[in-house]
Amino acid sequence: xxxxxxxxxxxxxxxxxxxxxxxxxxxxxxxxxxxxxxxxxxxxxxxxxxxxxxxxxxxxxxxxxxxxxxxxxxxxxxxxxxxxxxxxxxxxxxxxxxxxxxxxxxxxxxxxxxxxxxxxxxxxxxxxxxxxxxxxxxxxxxxxxxxxxxxxxxxxxxxxxxxxxxxxxxxxxxxxxxxxxxxxxxxxxxxxxxxxxxxxxxxxxxxxxxxxxxxxxxxxxxxxxxxxxxxxxxxxxxxxxxxxxxxxxxxxxxxxxxxxxxxxxxxxxxxxxxxxxxxxxxxxxxxxxxxxxxxxxxxxxxxxxxxxxxxxxxxxxxxxxxxxxxxxxxxxxxxxxxxxxxxxxxxxxxxxxxxxxxxxxxxxxxxxxxxxxxxxxxxxxxxxxxxxxxxxxxxxxxxxxxxxxxxxxxxxxxxxxxxxxxxxxxxxxxxxxxxxxxxxxxxxxxxxxxxxxxxxxxxxxxxxxxxxxxxxxxxxxxxxxxxxxxxxxxxxxxxxxxxxxxxxxxxxxxxxxxxxxxxxxxxxxxxxxxxxxxxxxxxxxxxxxxxxxxxxxxxxxxxxxxxxxxxxxxxxxxxxxxxxxxxxxxxxxxxxxxxxxxxxxxxxxxxxxxxxxxxxxxxxxxxxxxxxxxxxxxxxxxxxxxxxxxxxxxxxxxxxxxxxxxxxxxxxxxxxxxxxxxxxxxxxxxxxxxxxxxxxxxxxxxxxxxxxxxxxxxxxxxxxxxxxxxxxxxxxxxxxxxxxxxxxxxxxxxxxxxxxxxxxxxxxxxxxxxxxxxxxxxxxxxxxxxxxxxxxxxxxxxxxxxxxxxxxxxxxxxxxxxxxxxxxxxxxxxxxxxxxxxxxxxxxxxxxxxxxxxxxxxxxxxxxxxxxxxxxxxxxxxxxxxxxxxxxxxxxxxxxxxxxxxxxxxxxxxxxxxxxxxxxxxxxxxxxxxxxxxxxxxxxxxxxxxxxxxxxxxxxxxxxxxxxxxxxxxxxxxxxxxxxxxxxxxxxxxxxxxxxxxxxxxxxxxxxxxxxxxxxxxxxxxxxxxxxxxxxxxxxxxxxxxxxxxxxxxxxxxxxxxxxxxxxxxxxxxxxxxxxxxxxxxxxxxxxxxxxxxxxxxxxxxxxxxxxxxxxxxxxxxxxxxxxxxxxxxxxxxxxxxxxxxxxxxxxxxxxxxxxxxxxxxxxxxxxxxxxxxxxxxxxxxxxxxxxxxxxxxxxxxxxxxxxxxxxxxxxxxxxxxxxxxxxxxxxxxxxxxxxxxxxxxxxxxxxxxxxxxxxxxxxxxxxxxxxxxxxxxxxxxxxxxxxxxxxxxxxxxxxxxxxxxxxxxxxxxxxxxxxxxxxxxxxxxxxxxxxxxxxxxxx
Length: 1340
What we know:
The chain is mainly α. Helix content is 72%, strand content 0%. It contains 65 helices and no strands. It is elongated.
């Protein structure tokens, strides 16, 4: 019998001889010395012996030596030799396995036959050798493959290896599957014991786990399955558990790609052998790990977490029985482990409790376990880590999707999700939004969640329930639902759980079958309530309806928060909020429609993803397949939108028309609505349709060309009197016509069009509140359409003027205004005068725009002509152009005639602009006369205060004239600022504030001296004026039209404005300002700090403002420079409040290593402030922050700095207390001396007694003590020194806090913190000691 084979530690160890008669390689052959032909013959000989002899011939010494030699030099073998060798070994081993089974059966029948035992031993030896050789073949080939895949290998090397390589992957999977099969046969009979040779198992497991470290190898599914089978068999079937668990944990910690495959291997072993020991051991191992270890090993924590989730997905019931060992890790610091445990609980809740065929007791235990898991999930929604909170909400969304959340818990989850919408972390808000979307999508209450519908249905069924049980009062509405407040006893626990289960099943069945039908019938106003069953079923339905009502109210209550989220700086917030609102509209949640309207302005967002989200939502909600429905949706949107929403709607409609999402059939349907071709169309619908068409015309001018006549007939016809805004919309449509359509309209209906426009402007057939907007667009339409608009505009001004001054009392009115009285003004007269001022000012403004447009046209024509001439020269470059032409062009270029033409054009344009008002001469033109009249009118403050409407019109016209003419502006600037500061009218001040912005753009030099007054508008008591001031100044500063002056602190104060809208606008301004250049806020901050410190601001407001401003500074260099700047501000400041403010600002900086060093270096600048408790607290905050990131050497410096601060703080406190006591002492001495002098006239005795008595009075009033001085036994003649001694002793015996509260003390700079009893009690001993020493020094 051949020697026994033992698995060596290494392959080379087989060459070592041992004393226990084991098989080893006695005569290994040097393969490298063989010629290729000899090597090939050698391999063929080995293959022939393996195939020709018996299977266990490999244990023969000669064969074993030759096989060992080949395996030792396997990497150097040619491909053909490798193939022959591997095939021979694999085929022999595959034949050996069934022989082992048959041999085992023979050994059982012939127990005493010695040859059979020898044969079994030979087979065992061969089994081991084949296993050993084949695994070493796999290891050698994988090592060779790994070196080939080395990125440092050259391309030529890889190409050569590719040519010489063989198809190894199929061979590898066959070998490993063969080894897996070998572990699944009856090996205990071969090895003679149920416990296999540990040497064999150790070898298998060690090398298989090493293969798991190769990610490329695991990509082959057959190979991966074989490896998993091997691990499952070794650990579960043959109980090689402890070492395997350690190896698995090591692999999971180190390699992330192993996690999924290892979970599959563990789950596969449990299912194949019905034994979960391996999984349980791993879970216990994870549970035993110290939670702190996962904080350090973040990669390992993440891998362990993934492994737990993967394992739970495969083995939910097994994990549910072992979950107790993992729950303590919820208290660990590693959020990744907590995330994983949350995922595990979610998988368990969804999958581990689906076994309905179980006993009642088992079901009750499972239900309690599930309830405990759900409570943990709810609790984890408030986890300290944002990642865990986000993960919990994701798990709840998964549970909702899988219908694993009961109705009894539905509202608790929805309320938690609604609360998380205000979480400080964006990822949590995103998860909360997704959870609410999922809850709406899978809600069990029906497709419509209107509150009114639920309330009506609930009321009906409550009545029905009262009829069924009139004597029993209705409970709180959770009768049929599982209650979280059930406190069942031990004996009744199972029955209580059973009742909950039954109620839940009954309620869910009722909800699914009846709730939608019930709501539908109620919505149809059916007076009869459908009968859904007995009393219990009715109760369950009522509970479901109440839960649905609560859910609907919860979602509806989130609408204000969703509106805020749409203004978030996080794109994910905006996108997911829009998705949630779309889902809310689908389920008809109250308030969702109004919130979606507020989505429209987001179309102007610079973030492409936000715009795309808005556009997609718009298309989903409003664009339908039916063109008529689409048209109706769009016109309804246009009718109900405000000015801002209309601008956004115009932008979106234009984009959709360009893309073709709004089809031509929808355009036709809109025209049908405008022309009243659709039944039921109102004048308002007609106006809305035309408004949408105007929006579409901005992108496609041909939209309006087909109904020019209809626009005139309907837009200015009888329907315009029914819907006054229709005329205004028609004027806008006329301005949007293409050039060809304009010519066509002028040729056919020109005179009629201008007659209608003149009637609209000068007539009185439109309401007063509509006329101004309509006249605005009508005048613009005149300047757009008329070939010579100034002539028609002059007629309009004259007619409007005659309506005011040619009527009865017109002359008297003009004279009265000149003289300062206007008693003749009536309501009609006011309206006409206001209209005249509007017309003349708007005509003047449009005339200015018209002049600029004419100048642009001329320049454009000149550029086009020059380009044409250049192209013509290039075409005729062969010399056909006359020499004179070329010479003229070159001369013109040299003389700069083109530039002179531009200058001449500019001169003409300036002259034309000046002629609008003044004309540059002594004679005033039509509008110039009105300007003089208007200036007088606006200066008549008595008249303006009497008629505020007239002041609004007059100041608006005055501002327009000032924008047009620089001289007129300069002459009336003081008037404008006087009105904007003193006018009682909110409208006037708001309009003037807006006009100041326009004037600053047009005439910056004129407005520059008035900058302070412009900033003063930020402090206006009226909200609208402050808001407009913030908007105007933000526009001017951010567009570089106004320099940031020293008054920017006024804008900073608006950060804490009582109006939230103004506060948000100010924050937006500073946010945008911080993006400009190198962040101007950095340079402005010290100045803002100084000015805010001297203003009447609350401490909280100051801190909030500075915290926001400092937070906008991100660069480390700027932070470091600010440290030095702020420290320098301490110098020369004696105000304690400013010390506190500066130290607070320092504490808000993000300190770097350089920054903290600068703070230490600047110690001299602020050492005098360290006596203040609030100041030292801020410095301690700085130290605590910097300790977190400091390196060891810096940390020691910081600790020294901290000790230095504390030392100086204590010294300064002692000095101040000593000085305070000295002052008190001095005051007492002066008082006692005064009494002594006063008593000198009556003799020494009486003086002494009086002084003693007076001393008692001083004690009582000044020190709060009723005891007399204990020195009455001293000699009666007391000089000043003795009084000083008595006073000093008295001071030592008194409580320190009484000294601080003495009304006679007046110490400059004393803070409130010094007067607190607790702080002064701590200093009592120091006070006494310092006072004694002070007294002794005085005596000396």
